[in-house]
Design a protein that fits this description.
Elements lengths: L1 E10 L2 E11 L4 E5 L6 H8 L7 E6 L2 E2 L5 H7 L1 E4 L11 H8 L8 H11 L1 H5 L10 H13 L5 E5 L7 H16 L3 E5 L3 H7 L2 E6 L2 E7 H6 L1 H6 L5
């Protein structure tokens, strides 16, 4: 469904992505693992059009995405939940969700709004609340729900567990599994490798801008290098 081939991305003279190749199949959850600075966020920003690539290719169901502006990439079916949530702090919860559907004019917006409230009942309770006054967990729920309002075929999730209490992390990941079960393909960037691999079908490991390992989630969970570097085992 999503095919990335030999992707090279630079920040000025810094070579951030060095030939990244990966794929995401329809209906999958694919985890992208790696330490800080490995290139995970850069990969997602490039896929969503926020960063230009120097070379390589990105194709969604055969159609190229490189050079396509971010708003047009959303229209093609990719929504990005950025690291740090990036909600509209001064707007209400409902207004944030409506912003997620800004490019849509179809009749399904109301249905998707109700879907968001079913996935995240707390947002329904706080629909009139100013988003900047929500807790960190509630803001993460809102960021994911806002992206879903674009009716994406692929959801790019960047560090959804960052800064959350363990009980909220479990809740967020259970919801991610539910979203996938309802038909949305997911590319997940996550520092919590154990949690990411527990819900993913496959995964890739990035180190300094290069894919160094890939395989099924089960294979990566059993890989000695992954267990030592990312799962906290000796």
């Amino acid at each position: 469904m999503l095919e990335v081939q030999d992707l090279h991305v630079y920040y000025g003279e810094i070579h951030a992505l060095k030939g990244v190749t990966l794929g995401v199949g329809k209906g999958e959850i694919v985890a992208l693992l790696g330490n800080n600075g490995a290139g995970k966020t850069t990969t997602l920003k490039t896929l969503s059009g926020l960063l230009p690539a120097r070379s390589g290719s990105v194709r969604l169901e055969g159609e190229t995405l490189l050079g396509v502006p971010p708003h047009a990439i959303v229209l093609r079916g990719i929504a990005h939940v950025p690291e740090g949530r990036r909600i509209f702090n001064r707007l209400t919860v409902l207004e944030n969700l409506e912003m997620g559907a800004y490019a849509r004019s179809d009749a399904g917006i109301g249905q998707d709004l109700e879907r968001a409230f079913v996935l995240f009942p707390r947002l329904k309770e706080r629909r009139a609340q100013v988003a900047g006054t929500l807790s960190g967990g509630e803001q993460q729920m809102l960021a994911i729900a806002r992206a879903l309002m674009a009716a994406p075929r692929i959801l790019l999730l960047d560090e959804p567990s960052m800064g959350l209490a363990p009980v909220l992390v479990e809740q967020i990941f259970e919801t991610i599994r539910d979203i996938n079960g309802q038909g949305t393909t997911i590319l997940l960037v996550e520092q919590n490798a154990a949690m990411a691999l527990s819900i993913a079908h496959r995964g890739y490991v990035l180190e300094t801008g290069t894919v160094v390992l890939s395989g099924t989630a089960a294979d990566l969970q059993e890989n000695p290098e992954v267990r030592r570097a990312y799962l906290g085992e000796t």
